[in-house]
Amino acid sequence: MLLSFRSGLLSILCLILLVVVLPRKVSSLSPDDLVKYQCSSNDVNVIGLGQIENEPCYCSGTFTANVSFHVANTASASRYCASIYLCGIVDPVVLLPQTIGNTAGVFYAQIPNYPCGTGVTCFGAQGPNGQGAVFPKGKACDSGTCCDTITWNQNEGSACPSTSPIKSQCRHHQICIQGKKVTLQCTENCKPPGCGKYTSKVTLCQEGITGSGPFKFEVTSEDFNDSRWSSLPCETFDVPVTAPGRTFKGTVSPPGSCAIQATSTVSMAANSELSLDVQPFEQLQCDGSGQIRASAWPTDSGIATASASLPAYHYQFSVDQVAIASFAPNTNGIFQYTPPSDGTCHTVQVSAIDPLTGCASPVKEAKVSTCVVSVAC
Q: What whole-number distance in Å separates Cα of residue 152 and Cα of residue 198?
């Protein structure tokens, strides 16, 4: 990590000042008021990303972020009350401590209503020098854009933040802040390759979780759990997709008391294998005519009866392996058949097919004959 400065008396005092000590007059200016400033000075710059120091372990919505910034003062004398006007933030962010010597150091600020789990967040427009970089000296914001701006005072006793900063004593700068973020994505075999269960790969990544690791990477679903410890930013897992709409959750946890740091989910679907039930042949007449009733359901559902909520399966009937008829479910899969009076047994075969996926059930059979000539089937 760029900034490893949590310990030390200065950090503790600054965080206390953020919360308790320093009431301040809020500037009436907004980032939009400063976009046309030429900002020809180069005294104060933010180096690299700001780092959120206090994002909660369990975080949803927003929180008040304590952010540390690495700040450099290139002037020969101290500067005071460095304030950052962030696009989308109402009040300027005042850096503490308020005195900035002529060397680089770590400074702190509070940003209310900061969103959880966003990773790297950049506020204003990007300048000519790239993402998160300071604008060239004297460069104003492009027309129609909002730019982040850093202002400061030359005199220690001036109002903080200044209600009318000198137009040269500022610098446009896209400010980017690093928070926590976890992502889980399917990276291989993401669509059903056929019918039934299959194995896919998902990649779980983290950014902005402070500490040197290792971190616990864990992927879970209704019938799956796998975890490992790693100091890498990403880990890949083989996961079984056993049913339609299977949802996997990825969790990254640092060692210690923060049980769960952040989570992300990915959903995938398997094409169900079909199970088939064929009721016994119900002989209605002595000539052997009768009905065979078939009903299919997804194997993984455990449902053994036909249901209006199930997909529209088609049923294929054959006699002695010669296709005879195909029915949609609105006919209830009922096949009316009269075997010939030849004194032999005939085999009726039936299977079910899901027209959306092409997945078929195993073939089931029923043997029938007439009773004109007595034949045991």
A: 60
Return the number of other C-beta atoms located less than 10 Å from residue 372's C-beta. 12
pLDDT digits (tens, 9 = 90+) for 127-176: 888 888 888 888 888 888 888 989 998 888 888 887 777 888 888 889 99
Looking at the structure, do residues 285 and 191 belong to the same domain, yes or no? no
- Phi and psi, residue 14, nearest 5°: -65, -45
- Check if the beta carbon of residue 174 is closer than 8 Å to that of residue 122: yes
Counting the structural domains of the chain, the total is 3
- Contact indicator for 108, 67 with CB cutoff of 8 Å: yes
Q: What percent of the chain has pLDDT over 90?
A: 16
Residue 377 in any domain: the answer is no
List Cα–Cα distances, 242 to 36, 196, 265, 274, in angstroms.
59, 7, 17, 13
Q: 199 near 191, Cβ under 8 Å?
A: no
Spatial separation of the C-alpha atoms in residues 217 and 252, rounded to whole Å: 5
Q: What is the dihedral of CA 153, 158, 162, 167, to 10 degrees?
A: -50
Task: Judge whether 272 and 243 are in contact, CB under 8 Å.
Answer: yes
* Dist. CA 70–CA 74, nearest whole Å: 13
Both structure tokens of 277: 């039930």
Tell me, yes or no, whether 242 and 362 share the same domain: no
Distances, alpha carbon 147 to alpha carbons 84, 94, 108, 252, 348, in Å: 11, 17, 21, 34, 77
At 15, which helix (H) or strand (E)? helix 9-16
Q: Number of C-alpha atoms within 13 angstroms, CB side, residue 367?
A: 6
Domain CATH for 238: 2.60.40.10
Residue at which a domain ends, from 160, 178, 196: 178
Q: At residue 92, what are phi and psi to the nearest 5 degrees?
A: -65, 150
- Please give the share of the chain, as a percent, with pLDDT higher than 70: 71
Q: Please check whether residue 364 is in contact with residue 345, taking contact to mean a CB–CB distance below 8 angstroms.
A: no
β-strand partners of 45? 72
- Asked whether 262 and 238 are in contact (CB, 8 A), the reply is no
Residue 375 forms part of a structural domain? no
List, in sequence order, every residue forming a beta bridge with 98; answer none if it has no partner. none
Fill in the amino acid letter for 81: C
**Looking up tokens 């004398």, which residue turns up?**
77
